[in-house]
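Re: Re: ligand-bound prediction request (bumping)

Still looking for help on this. To restate: I need the protein modeled with flavin-adenine dinucleotide bound, output as structure tokens. Inputs repeated here so nobody has to scroll up.
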Amino acid sequence: MTKTTVVVIGAGIVGLSVAFEALQGGATVTIVDRDPAGDKASFGNAGGIAVTEVVPASVPGLWKKVPLWLLDPLGPLTLRIGHAPRMVPWLWNFARVGSPSEVARISKALASINSRVYDDLMPLFNTVGLGGDLFRKGALTVYETANGFLRDKHEWEAKRALGVEMKELSAREVRDMEPALGAIVQSGVFTPQWSHIADPKKVVDVLRLWLAANGAEILHGQVDRVYSTSEGAKVAMSGGTTLSAAKVVIAAGAWSAQLAQQLGDRVLLESERGYNTTIAAPGVMLEREVIFADRKFVATPLSVGLRIGGAAEFGGLQSPPNFKRSKALVKLAKLYLPGLRADGGSEWSGHRPATPDSLPVIGRSSVSMDIIYAFGHGHLGLTQGPTTGKIVGDLIFGRAQSLDLSPFSAARFSFRKGK
Ligand SMILES: Cc1cc2nc3c(=O)[nH]c(=O)nc-3n(C[C@H](O)[C@H](O)[C@H](O)COP(=O)(O)OP(=O)(O)OC[C@H]3O[C@@H](n4cnc5c(N)ncnc54)[C@H](O)[C@@H]3O)c2cc1C
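Reply:
Sorry for the wait, this slipped through. Here it is.
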């Protein structure tokens, strides 16, 4: 029997997870990336398996907080002014999906993916030898006020209604769990379903090497265009090479919109740049990931050190990073972790592929059943990568889907050229 040929564009966590499923299903797999082993969002993220994050970024009332955030040049949200005009459709859509009914619809869709994350992630991790790299220790969200939980009450209630387990904690209970946290912390919420991994870079490296060792071809190269002909899907690479395949999967992270647009699917995708600093010898110990709700950043105890990160900077794919943000986050962390030794940290920044509704784009392109999208995972690409791989595997091999894919369709942006 002839094997299905699959080309996956992108060697980030999403593309590699798709390649894993395609290979497991018996396909001949080629992964194309301009820098397969190089830096990407999947490389330096916070390492959280954030299954409890089922509420989108755009929620009712958010707009009251945005002006304050924007006034602080190193605050949690930045919109680079030169890029703002290009973002109008994205921002308009972001505002539109912030209504209570849209938030309820989107949260349900996010929960439909997140509720099966471990079922898809564990077999992949165990198969490639990463089983010991997942720490199921939950996460702690901390507040600077005794009733911080009440401020975010609607969000927590929405999460609880979608199956998220949580326990409210007093300041003392928080410090019993994480003694490194200082007096600034007045309350917290423990979410046991969250987990974290040892090192995101190790995950993509181990997975890529496992795929290569098990028959996937990994090609270095820039993909210029994906198109469909009567003989199947084609991938045109810089330098003149054209690849043919029964199925092509676009999993190029924040760069995917350009390839989809050439196919006529104008999706709304922006780079949401995030920053962090990893401190190998931080002088403090955390048992689990801590989310600092008032200042919008996180700290994760990775095998490579304590990673302190966050920030959402919208400036397009070409703007240079501003590492003052990494430094500002470390300064904030010192408020919460009085014993933190911040010297010698390594700074990093990466492009989250962000859609306005916080939902990824997963599904067939509108021009061809053979060209499949898998991108736009925003803050949750590591969490949702293996599940996306499974869903795309089902599309590749024509298997029944256990999930309603309509919320994830590229068509939701209704921007198909010529319509
Ligand atoms: C600071 C920060 C913290 C984060 N923390 C978390 C977290 O705790 N948990 C979580 O779940 N998620 C987290 N995320 C989000 C997560 O990292 C991303 O959603 C995820 O890595 C996206 O993976 P990807 O495979 O889609 O894209 P990427 O990892 O960006 O990979 C895309 C690949 O496509 C290649 N490519 C692009 N265009 C082309 C082309 N034309 N030709 C050839 N190759 C191409 C690139 O070279 C790249 O290797 C975080 C992100 C950031 C920035």
